[in-house]
């Protein structure tokens, strides 16, 4: 009876969470007691909230300033533990009344042994493999004694069974008397322990997998953060370079610009940090909860310990239900940061460095895929995109498709006369005129056929003269809107006029790697060679020249502004990534409202009016 009493006392000196003797026991408001360290882990497991939920009864206790040490100590329990540890343990193997003090404890025999009994015990072959613990290590708390539990009702009986309905261990006699009703699932204690350990291992495996998934998410966030930081560094370096080449009065503006870059990018990095912090807290929750139920050497035996253990397992199960990370959120945030760029104003008259802008284009899919052949601004300020498969699609400045006209005409070029009549060039190089109601006029033009002239392009000048360029014939023909024969021809000596644009009293021609500004007698006034990249020109709303250079192989476009002498003014778009189309054919235009339109065979990209923003924010 004395041994049974000691087992009961020892069991009640164990923490329900760690299953070891209490260390610095603290009382919750519900009167349940736990180790201080176990409470710290529980608090960490729930995101370091100030409310701590008891694993046994689930009542909540407020933890002042998240400091578990401020909870009241269980002084009576602490004193009892110290008294038990200070008492000598006597040999339970000796039969004499005057028993000597024990020096070791055999885990397998469940017996305390004195020096003499220990020596005899160690010499028996059957006992050589037994696990023997020194009393000093037990008292110091370095090791824990594995006790054999006896039934409280029947002290001579071992608790060999487990009732899954009552969630408790029982001896065979208790099973017969108390656990035979319907619904009581009784199994061997060893079977329960085996299943329980397997469940713990499964939870540990799932936790490791989930932790790995969230760690990859954290690594991805770090990668996005680094990319945004690189953008910040590049912008800062560019600003410093321009500043050093400018005058001292620009110092204040420089600092404002750097601050703006930092503000925009730091906001994104803060968003990414919040995502990372939330994810790392979840990882900590998973690891702490898993460790608390898996890093142990014994199975919870009494009801309180089982309740605490069940609560911890349920908490971990809930944590494991959280969906895997959604990479779209950090990708969207980093996209905002990576879109920040610095636009220099070097070459302009204003004493300003430039402006921080977000180079983000609207990306509109053209209804007629891989079909774009021409683009021009309408008299009403919209964008007309011609398709060689048929039709002219009209887009507003915000990228909305408003209507499609000439659906049965295979468009190769589009223009407008001063009275707003349409001028179209079809796939056979035929010119047609249409009224505002899209009625075709009975006007004929004698152009070169597709066989004789090759691929053709069209533009209309301010005097309503119509210009048609031919790649194969390498010349430009000029027509009157009255129709008939060609008025005059402009030879293109040594180059192919791929695209033509009317500009004041000149024409802008684009060949495979050169932009030329020619007069109407074919003399080349200025030219700009683009060194291996395809250029496309348009007239800006400021009457300067916009030139888009395309690296077709890698799908990058840059747009710059030039004077009427083809001298560089500023960069507007730098290496913007576009979807690489099958055909290398592009068009550049600008809306009257300032948006720059860059058209590929498949898509329409609309860039904000960055020069206007720069001038009004300098």
TrEMBL record:
SUPFAM superfamilies linked to this entry: 3-carboxy-cis,cis-mucoante lactonizing enzyme, B-box zinc-binding domain, RING/U-box
Entry keyword annotation includes Acetylation: no
Domain of life: Eukaryota
Annotated RING-type domain residues: 15-58
Keyword Membrane on entry: no
GO molecular function terms attached to this record: ubiquitin protein ligase activity; zinc ion binding
Keywords: Metal-binding, Phosphoprotein, Zinc, Zinc-finger
PANTHER family referenced in this protein's UniProt entry, alphabetically: BONUS, ISOFORM C-RELATED, MEIOTIC P26, ISOFORM F
Protein name as catalogued: Uncharacterized protein
């Amino acid at each position: 009876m004395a041994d049974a009493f000691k087992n009961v006392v020892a069991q009640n000196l164990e923490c329900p969470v760690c299953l070891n003797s209490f260390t610095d026991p603290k009382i919750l408001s519900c009167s349940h007691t736990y180790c201080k360290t176990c409470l710290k882990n529980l608090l960490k497991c729930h995101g370091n909230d100030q409310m701590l939920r008891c694993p046994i009864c689930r009542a909540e206790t407020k933890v002042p300033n998240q400091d578990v040490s401020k909870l009241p100590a269980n002084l009576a329990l602490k004193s009892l533990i110290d008294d038990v540890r200070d008492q000598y343990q006597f040999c339970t193997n000796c039969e004499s009344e005057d028993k000597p003090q024990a020096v070791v404890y055999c885990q397998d025999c469940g017996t305390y042994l004195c020096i003499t009994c220990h020596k005899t015990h160690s010499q028996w072959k059957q006992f050589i493999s037994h696990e023997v613990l020194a009393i000093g290590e037990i008292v110091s708390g370095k090791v824990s004694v594995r006790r054999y539990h006896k039934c409280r009702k029947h002290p001579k009986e071992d608790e060999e069974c487990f009732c899954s309905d009552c969630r408790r261990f029982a001896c065979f006699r208790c099973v017969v008397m108390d656990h035979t009703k319907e619904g009581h699932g009784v199994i061997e204690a060893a079977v329960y322990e085996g299943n329980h350990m397997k469940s713990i291992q499964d939870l540990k495996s799932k936790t490791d997998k989930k932790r790995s998934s969230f760690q990859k998410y954290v690594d991805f966030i770090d990668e996005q953060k680094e990319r945004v930081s690189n953008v910040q560094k590049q912008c800062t370096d560019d600003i410093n370079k321009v500043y050093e080449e400018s005058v001292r009065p620009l110092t204040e503006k420089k600092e404002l610009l750097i601050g703006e870059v930092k503000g925009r990018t730091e906001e994104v990095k803060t968003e990414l940090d919040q995502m990372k912090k939330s994810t790392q807290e979840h990882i900590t929750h998973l690891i702490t909860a898993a460790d608390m139920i898996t890093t142990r050497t014994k199975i919870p035996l009494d009801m309180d310990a089982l309740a605490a253990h069940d609560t911890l397992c349920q908490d971990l199960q809930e944590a494991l239900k959280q969906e895997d990370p959604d990479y779209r959120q950090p990708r969207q945030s980093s996209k905002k940061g990576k879109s920040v760029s610095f636009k220099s104003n070097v070459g302009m008259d204003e004493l300003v460095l430039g402006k921080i802008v977000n180079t983000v284009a609207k990306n509109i899919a053209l209804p007629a895929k891989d079909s774009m052949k021409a683009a021009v601004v309408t008299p009403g300020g919209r964008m007309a995109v011609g398709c060689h498969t048929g039709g002219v699609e009209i887009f507003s400045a915000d990228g909305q498709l408003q209507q499609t006209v000439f659906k049965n005409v295979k468009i190769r070029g589009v223009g407008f006369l001063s009275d707003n009549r349409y001028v179209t060039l079809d796939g056979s190089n035929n010119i047609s005129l249409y009224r505002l109601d899209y009625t075709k006029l009975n006007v004929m033009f004698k152009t070169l056929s597709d066989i004789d002239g090759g691929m053709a392009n069209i533009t209309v000048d301010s005097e309503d003269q119509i210009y048609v360029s031919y790649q194969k014939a390498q010349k430009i023909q000029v027509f009157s809107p009255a129709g008939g024969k060609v008025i005059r021809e402009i030879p293109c000596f040594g180059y192919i006029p791929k695209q033509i644009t009317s500009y004041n009293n000149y024409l802008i021609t684009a060949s495979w790697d050169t932009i030329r500004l020619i007069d109407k007698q074919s003399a080349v006034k200025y030219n700009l060679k683009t060194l291996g990249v395809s250029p496309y020109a348009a007239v800006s709303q400021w009457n300067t020249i916009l030139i888009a250079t395309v690296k077709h192989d890698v799908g990058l476009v840059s747009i710059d502004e030039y004077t009427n002498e083809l001298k560089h003014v500023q960069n507007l778009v730098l290496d913007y990534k576009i979807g690489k189309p099958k055909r290398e054919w592009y068009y550049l235009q600008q809306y009257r409202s300032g948006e720059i339109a860059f058209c590929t065979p498949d898509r329409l990209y609309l860039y904000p009016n960055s020069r206007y923003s720069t001038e009004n924010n300098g």
